[in-house]
Design a protein that fits this description.
Blueprint lengths: L1 H6 L7 E5 L4 H9 L3 E5 L5 H11 L4 E5 L11 H10 L4 E5 L18 E5 L11 E5 L1 H6 L22 H4 L7 H17 L1 H19 L7 H5 L6 E5 L2 H10 L5 E3 L2 E5 L6 H10 L1
Parallel strand pairs: 1-2, 1-3, 3-4, 4-5
Antiparallel strand pairs: 5-6, 7-9, 8-9
Helix pairs in contact: 8-11
Organism: Aureicoccus marinus
Protein name: Aminotransferase class V domain-containing protein
InterPro entries: Aminotrans_V_dom, PyrdxlP-dep_Trfase, PyrdxlP-dep_Trfase_major, PyrdxlP-dep_Trfase_small
Length: 278
């Protein structure tokens, strides 16, 4: 809902660049409002391809998940900074749901204009919560007509002076859900981002070593410098049965493949056990 509300403050006669297979909750709001959509396929050199498109075509908005929901494909974060420097007028809207919580991230230096994320994934915050980050230019230049009594915190005299953030909070907030996210973030920080990143890197290497050796991963998993903690493996009915019904491994079917996910609370031995089932 956050993306849909935010788009109400943008002109509709714009072209949006997205990756093929982008998460529906990021893509559909643009499609439903009649934006022109330009897509590019995921590849080893996708950043270079997008760079060339931005040179040759008019692209107003780059809407992209930092980590793709289907297979863990991760965009190069340093490249995003470079693109913003080269194209300061480009509005970069990022979905961080599959990214936030797997490694350290500084929004202020990211080059991203708008970042939205749900808290139930790698932030371990449970359902019903999420957040948005806006840079100063976006906060200043985006005007929304959506508002409610919650936007003014119960003081009607403040109606004329509310900003973007208040417009996105027109009603009651779920204090329990937001408190759960806040407590989870505190706990992650207590454990330490360096510890989380180090363990996730070990798990990633274990996936490449033990599952990749069976030829079940995509080549992009091996040849990209950055990768999320989601992995898409080749489907077979027997493989799905062993994982889902036999060993009770929590996994999902997505686009005809089996999606697995690991986080810092997993251990390498669990990756090895899952590999043995494949």
């Amino acid at each position: 809902m956050g993306v849909q509300c935010f788009l109400e403050g943008l002109p509709k006669e714009q072209t949006v660049l997205c990756l093929e297979g982008e998460y529906p909750s990021l893509l559909w709001p643009f499609q439903e409002r009649g934006y022109k959509i330009r897509t590019v396929a995921k590849s080893l050199l996708v950043e270079e391809e997008i760079t060339e498109i931005l040179k040759k075509e008019r692209i107003d908005i780059l809407a992209i998940s930092l980590v793709q929901w289907l297979d863990g494909f991760q965009i190069n974060m340093q490249w995003l900074k470079q693109i913003k420097r080269l194209h300061p007028g480009l509005l970069i809207i990022a979905d961080g749901t599959q990214y936030c919580g797997i490694e350290a991230f500084d929004f202020d230096t990211s080059g991203i204009d708008v970042l939205g994320a749900s808290g139930y994934k790698w932030l371990l915050g449970g359902y019903g919560n999420g957040f948005f980050c806006f840079n100063d230019r976006t906060l200043t230049n985006t005007k929304l007509s959506q508002l409610g009594f919650g936007s003014v915190r119960g003081d009607a005299d403040k109606r004329a002076g509310i900003g973007l953030a208040e417009c996105l909070e027109p009603g009651h907030q779920d204090a329990l859900a937001l408190g759960s996210l806040g407590r989870s973030v505190e706990q992650l920080m207590d454990w330490g981002l360096e510890t989380i990143v180090e363990q996730n890197q070990k798990l990633h290497q274990a996936v490449l070593t033990h599952i990749g050796a069976k030829g079940l991963l995509d080549e992009l998993d091996f040849n990209r410098s950055q990768h999320g903690m989601i992995y898409s493996i080749a489907y077979s009915e027997e493989r799905w049965r062993r994982l889902n019904e036999g060993a009770k491994v929590h996994c999902a079917l997505r686009s005809g493949r089996i999606r697995l996910g690991f986080h810092f609370y997993n251990v390498v031995e669990e990756v090895e056990q899952i590999a043995s089932l494949l």
